[in-house]
């Protein structure tokens, strides 16, 4: 129930941390003050009215995404008639053991891609903005040539091609909600999350196989051809 309603409250991810620790295999079962406090806070949260806006297809849509060493977090926002930014939905998840070994920029790229996939029912077929506090990520997801990017970034960039995002940099102060969600993820990676990376791998291979050879690759081919006796003859 908590996982199902987590998207309606940005606080549930942090409130359930003491309870989720009890679910770990190597954790001893101990119900103390932190667990009781967490349980009561979750109950109160679930019975309170969430402060969320209804999604409107005609309004400017923003996805603020962030990554930490623990997880990913994102919030879907829309600009209201009065100019305010109101949240429509919150999401968060923990990183897999493999994802925890990613470089910082790779985690940030994963966060933007994963958030777009999770919010696809809202953004597919329309333009939207991705906000990131990691400035080097902006050109990698927008203007930089595909073959010049690291392999993992290539895969995430390719996966974003079915969407129409405008990626911009914002200060960390504007990413408080997404940052908080990433540091206290509400759920573990699902099969869909794992499929995201697997699908990206397949798409990347198919696309990269059709890319023109780089200057360095062409020079390697020329060098090898000169050393091939059959071609020389």
UniProtKB/TrEMBL annotation:
<protein>
    <submittedName>
        <fullName>Pol polyprotein</fullName>
    </submittedName>
</protein>
<feature type="domain" description="Reverse transcriptase/retrotransposon-derived protein RNase H-like">
    <location>
        <begin position="31"/>
        <end position="130"/>
    </location>
</feature>
<dbReference type="Pfam" id="PF17919">
    <property type="entry name" value="RT_RNaseH_2"/>
</dbReference>
<dbReference type="InterPro" id="IPR050951">
    <property type="entry name" value="Retrovirus_Pol_polyprotein"/>
</dbReference>
<dbReference type="InterPro" id="IPR043502">
    <property type="entry name" value="DNA/RNA_pol_sf"/>
</dbReference>
<dbReference type="InterPro" id="IPR041577">
    <property type="entry name" value="RT_RNaseH_2"/>
</dbReference>
<dbReference type="InterPro" id="IPR043128">
    <property type="entry name" value="Rev_trsase/Diguanyl_cyclase"/>
</dbReference>
